[in-house]
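Entry 14. Ran structure prediction on the chain below.
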Amino acid sequence: MKKKLYIFTMLLALACATFGCGKEEKKDVTEEVSVKEDVVEFINDELTPIEAYRNSAIAVYNSYFATEDVDLNLFITNMKDSAIPSMETYISNLTNVEVATTEVTTLKNLCLQSAQKQHDAMLKIVLAVEEQNPDYLTEAETLITEAEESMAQFESNLRTIATDNGITIEGSVSY
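Output, structure tokens:
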């Protein structure tokens, strides 16, 4: 009888420990993050620190259009060695950002779409110069337009989320 009571007590203790751990996990899983908290964290803590990679890539790309006398070989080298890898780092970092709400997931996806289009446009520009094929320039132009459209949608969605959730946007929302 003592043996059965001991086994029953041990099983009861094990069951309590198991159920106790299960309740703790459920509490963590069901914990909700507000849209306000999620968007503020996404913009301030996640997007802002990695934005330097994108800005660097865009600066190299834009340097091509800054002057009339451009060393195309230097431009291609800078695109391959700096701009494209920087944009790839930005895309990789942005892809790894975890968000909690559907609204912020939409914002993240719009950023990713825009960055992917910008990246693809950079690759097309390099091809256009290397292969002296103006069709690639036309394709790159289309990709840039699509990237701008994604960013315009991002900005619109961000403003709507900010208004709906009492968030004050300081500075520019252009990314």
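The helical segments are 2-30, 35-66, 72-95, 102-131, 134-165. Will compare against last week's run tomorrow.
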